Amino acid sequence: MRAHQQLDRLVKSVLSHQSKSKKDKGLADFTKSLLGLAVAHDLATYAVADLAAMARSALSFATERVAGRPKIRVYTPDQKRHGWTADVTAIEIINDDMPFLVDSVLSLLNELGHEIVFALHPIFAVNRGSGGKLTSAPVGVSDAAPATPRESFILIHIQQLHQERDVKALEKEIERTMKDVRTVVLDWRQMQGRLNDAVADYQTNPPPVAVDELAESIQFLQWLLDNHFTFLGIREYRFEGDAATSDLSAVQKSGLGILRDPSVQVLRRGRELVSISPEVREFLMQPAPLIITKANVRATVHRRVHMDYIGIKQFNKKGALTGELRIVGLFTSVAYTRSTRAIPMLRRKVARMLERSGYSPEGHSAKALMNIVEQFPRDELIQIDEETLLETATGILQLEERPRTRVFVRKDKFDRFVSALVYIPRDRFNTGVRTSVGEALAQAYEGRVSAFYPAFPEGSLVRVHYIIGRYEGETPSPDHDKLEAEIVEIVKTWDDRLAETIAAHHDANNANYYLTRYVNAFSAAYQETFEPHEALADIDHISLLADRGDLEIDFYRPDGDAEHTLRLKIYHLGEPIPLSDRLPILENMGLRAIDERSYEAEVQGKDETSIVWIHDIALETADATAVSLQNAKSHLESCFIAVWWGRAENDSYNSLVLKESLNWRDVSALRTYSKYLRQTGIPFSAI
After folding, report:
1. C-beta neighbour count of 368 within 10 angstroms
2. Element (H, E) at 125
3. Cβ neighbourhood burial of 639 (10 Å; 0-12, 13-18, 19+)
4. Quick one: pLDDT at residue 8?
């Protein structure tokens, strides 16, 4: 059944169930609009009776709303109070229809770690009286007159919150988010108008900066206004003091959007939110008219990411600096996908970088470098200086000739964060590697991984952009080569390290032989248990199988193990050896197995692949007496092999190998004497 047919059937079942109970005015139309755009699979996880009651409860919740304010309810459904129940916590939000509502709420829930299990967002046409009460039931917008006010109804279910305080705390966070959304939307036109005024002021009263830089800055601001920037806040600041003691004070009632609240700050010095930071102070002292960077706080509207910060210097008619117009928001998706050649300010930086590279504009290297820049993380490209960009892009270009793990680091000069681009071979990349690399960077720069952005460009390398957040103190300057070497080690696979170990222990010819046969031979379970240098010993034993039949063994004791314990590895060609074939031999030798694990290896031969099983058995002596492995090893191994091949009997006489340090031939002789004496009638029994 197609999804829409399944959805239609489910909605009809809900309506049929409602018709059997008390009829609420307009409930059927409301239910169809509420559930009509849902995902059928999501609805199918609820009982029809619960869906019917859920819609009835939602309509009751929508009956009254104060105009101009969101109405929010967060609750865990209860059969008695709400008429339905499920292992979820429900979130219902009714608001005037406006941009950013759903994505802002979903971003908040994701940031808080709540798993979203169900989500609906119908838009209703609503008629309300002066007190906010419904005068008619909400209907879908397609069924209403164009002038009827629109309301957004957001219904989200998350994994159940068991504590009432958690429910209340989430409701407060949603209220705060809805307030910010409303403020931003209401001030949207005013914020655009204020930036338009700043552009006009630059055009009619040019500041004392280079003409080409001023022109590019004006074009950049106009580009922002052309739907390339989501304005979240604007505030004016007045400049006070000189270069050493300069400060900015907010102009009263100049704030719009989220900066309408005078207590809201977007810059941080150490752990304290402030109105001016060292970065902004330096910007004020430079001839550049604009600063484009990242704010220290995340957006609460649209996307939960660090906001983009644009500072515009303000001048009086004499060309003296008077203050800053501060704008915070988010570049739109177009700004991240459009070519750098179409973005003012950025195109200038890239052109200068290409000129400094020395490559012929029509040559392959220049085109390859430009392709790298186009794929560069856009936020990083906006903030990076030309010299660092050239150095980084050139390093990335070299990876095309020799792909390998590389690390490119840029420290924020005001110690707020470290940006690191890490290139990792695609076949080496996984979640564990990504996490471990991030931890290494965080430790090296005494910060934390505040964000990471994996990318999978064409070719054999994966790129991960790490942002290492810092709060205070000067950013460390670790040795880059050592840090990169550490990350190279993290990225290496177990087989990479095995190949290095083999190469270090064998000459070129033998190393090539072993690399061909044993790299990629050992199972994942084996690799999790043993280090590559331990595999080297196993390889030596496996190599003997061809000469010694299908079985090879090794008694050993890892460092730190107790004297009454030892371990045995059995190497067997073909099939695994059943426990019933192995353990009786060991028990008769006076040993007790306490643990056993088996591992598979696929050894590449010249013409075929051989399967080798490695049985690793943890043993202890039956009477807990200490064993000198140095003295007993050869006797134990030769006895096991002799029994396996049928050259010696498998009985308790073999315990003398361990107890009396006898070899299996001496034990066989004693066994023969014992049998002879019993034939003569001696009253003593066998061991």
Report:
1. 15
2. strand 123-128
3. buried
4. 85
- The CA-based diameter of the chain, rounded to the nearest angstrom, is 128
Which of helix, strand or coil describes residue 345?
A: coil
pTM across the whole model = 0.78
CB-CB contact of 632 with 615 (8 Å): no
Residue reference for tokens 């070899």: 663
Instruction: For the chain, give percent helix, strand, coil, nearest 5.
Output: 45, 25, 30
Q: For residues 109 and 170, what is the distance between their CA atoms, to the nearest angstrom?
A: 9
Distances (CA, A) of 17 to 10, 26, 59, 451: 11, 15, 16, 48
Identify whether the C-beta of residue 47 lies closer than 8 Å to the C-beta of residue 114.
no
Q: How many residues does the chain have?
A: 687
Q: What phi and psi, each to the nearest 5 degrees, are found at residue 17?
A: -65, -40
Which helix H or strand E contains 665, and what residues bound it? helix 664-679
Rounded CA separation 637/158 (Å) = 61
Q: Write the pLDDT tens digit of every residue in 349-394.
A: 999 999 999 898 888 999 999 999 999 999 999 999 999 999 999 9
CB atoms inside a 10 Å sphere around CB 215: 15
| CA–CA separation, 625 and 496 (whole Å) | 41
| DSSP state, residue 232 | E
Q: How far apart are CA 324 and CA 280, in angstroms?
A: 10
Of 259-268, 275-284, 411-420, 474-483, which gets the smallest average pLDDT? 275-284
Tokens found for residue 503: 């190469």
> Which amino acid does the sequence have at 347?
R
Q: No. of H helices and E strands in the chain?
A: 26, 22
126: Cβ–Cβ under 8 A, 6 or more apart, which residues?
Answer: 62, 134, 138, 148, 149, 150, 151
Residue-wise pLDDT for 474-522, tens only, equals: 889 999 999 999 999 999 999 999 999 999 998 888 899 899 999 999 9
Q: Over 60: is that where the pLDDT of 11 sits?
A: yes
Half-sphere exposure of 612 toward its Cβ, with a 13 Å CA cutoff? 32
